[in-house]
Amino acid sequence: MTLHKPTILVNRLVVMKGGRSVMNIPFHAGLNIITGENSSGKTTTIRFIAYALGSEGISFNQVAQLCDEIYLEVTANDAVVTLRRGVSTQLMRPLSIFWGTMQGALTAGSSMWQQFPFKRSEMKESFSQVLFRLLDMPELRGEGGSNITMHQLMRLIYSDQETPSSDLFRFDRFDRGITRAAIGDYLLGIDSTELYDLKLLESAADKDASAIRVSIRTIYSTFGNSGTNISLEFLNNQIQTLGSEILFLQSRLENIDSGAASKTSSSKEDNELRAQLTDAHMALSKLKEKKVNLETEIADSELFLRELEERMFSLEESAAAESYLGTAVFSFCPSCFTKLQPPEANQSSCALCKSDMAEDSARSQLARMKNELALQLRESGMIRVQQLEELDKVVLDIPSAQSRLKALETEFKRNQAHWRSPDHILMQSLSKEIGGKEQEIKNALELKKLADLLERLTDKLGEIEARQEWIKGRIEAVTREQEGRRNSAYLAVANNLKAILKDDLSRQAEFERADSINIDFGANQLSIDGQREFSASSMVFLRHGFHLALLLSSLELPYFRYPRLLIIDGVEDGGMEVERSYNFQKIIARRSSQSKVVHQIIMTTMSVCPELDTSEYIVGRKFTHEEKSIDIQAGPAHPGILPS
Fold first, then answer.
1. Residues 6+ apart with CB under 8 A from 438
2. Which residues contact 621 (CB under 8 A, 6 or more apart)?
3. What does the alpha-carbon distance between residue 395 and residue 376 come to, in Å, rounded to a whole number?
4. How many CB atoms are closer than 10 A to CB 20?
5. Whose C-alpha in 62, 158, 521, 555 is 20 to 30 A from the C-alpha of 205?
6. What is the pLDDT of residues 82-138, one digit of tens each?
7. Whole-angstrom Cα distance, residue 601 to residue 568?
8. CA 52 to CA 73: how far, in whole Å?
9. Pairing verdict, β 8-17 and 69-76
10. How far apart are the C-alpha atoms of 18 and 25, rounded to whole Å?
11. For 111, how many CA atoms within 13 A lie in the half-sphere containing its CB?
């Protein structure tokens, strides 16, 4: 079988109450049928699966709400992981991930699980981000930069009974046309990964540019309204002019009274100046030392980031090599060269240490390590940004510290050579004027620091705007390149849907002669030769047929991001007659068996087509009013014990 990425397969569903299993159903690739009488728990079973995969707005009945946790073992591409989510009617509940099989998950301690929230934050990734990475799916942003979640993708994967049969997407109270269009195009693989990377870059650049513009506006609004000139050229000229004026005043001071000038400065004033000079020297030295340390730390951070990226690339190479070569088999011990006994035929164990080893444990661990490296990359990147911001601040502080030190040195030299006599009023006046101008220089230096920042911000904004222009141009170019893929993707879905409609029983004439099918994800509807309304049972057939067509198209076109999983609840809704339901079930089974691509279909029905009423398709027991899907009374005493 061929594996197209992304692919999700549900392997086993276990629901717990009070530490006991009240539902335990294994699944397999291909068609899985859950069957039973009305109100026996078929829909509840499907809801448990959808909820564990990230769906929101799931309505659990009173019996389901008595349960505690849902465990769902899935194969994501080629890695087996177990998902756990607490049963709740509250929205946006977290989800936990165990990087291994259900058997290991049910006996694992809490430290072996990783919990992720529904919504991302600066310090924590959401479970949607982790699952997207696990499936090798690029992140998708909707309108306004909001991230598309697993819940949004499940709206096209899970076809429930509650949503009106005229809608393509499962109902969502925060639904928007632009979001639906983005999800549809994303799952059909219309846009390349490069386009989504470019959109992420565009979003980040827009965010950075917006923040810089706010800072620039704040500076201008604060000082511009007061009439203060913060031009760098003006401030440099002002400092130079004030310095010349101080030198001129100092020369006048030296020539006023040589007798008074011959007096040395007092020891008290000398000591005060020495203390200030020492403090200024230390402050400047600390700033320079901090600058060197930060530059070293930043260099180390960049090396570490490059190493993490190399490790991530190596992990991907390891995963590829493992998929081609499989686990290495040792015939001889690498230490003593003794011939090793091969494991028993039905036993999965290490050839060296004889420890039990799941067949897919290597892939699960590779997926876990890949996720951990991605988290380290994110955290290390945030640390590097903080270091760069701190370095910018230090670089801006150094010129001010240098100017203060120079001013103190000048004052100390002047006081050592010439001291103002208190008897000379003119000398006092000149000294006061010199002090005032020195203060003006200090103020100008502070403003210059702000002007330097403004110039840096302006230059940085120019760089970002240039990058934005390049990204925008590249997005337009890639979008044009993807137009052909869009036509192919929509045509594939339409052709598959037409074939399904023509295989229907002769109940709707428009289905038999269907020619043009228009699919509009944004409007949440499709039309056949311009017509959108049909009989109730035909609308149900059309909706389920559309979802089946999506799955079949994803099996034909590898670039689809639809994860080769289809969940259909109630194929006979809308008053569909038994013969028509049986025919649709046979269409599903036939089209599924004809494909050589790994996929999974999970559907519920009250009445199974006799040809499909076999262990090849039926999963779990048939539910009845007496033996419903949730068995509150029974269940194994230990959660780690699973039936074979």
1. 246, 407, 411
2. 627
3. 28
4. 17
5. 521
6. 999 999 989 999 999 999 999 999 999 999 999 999 998 878 899 999 999 999 998
7. 8
8. 10
9. antiparallel
10. 18
11. 0
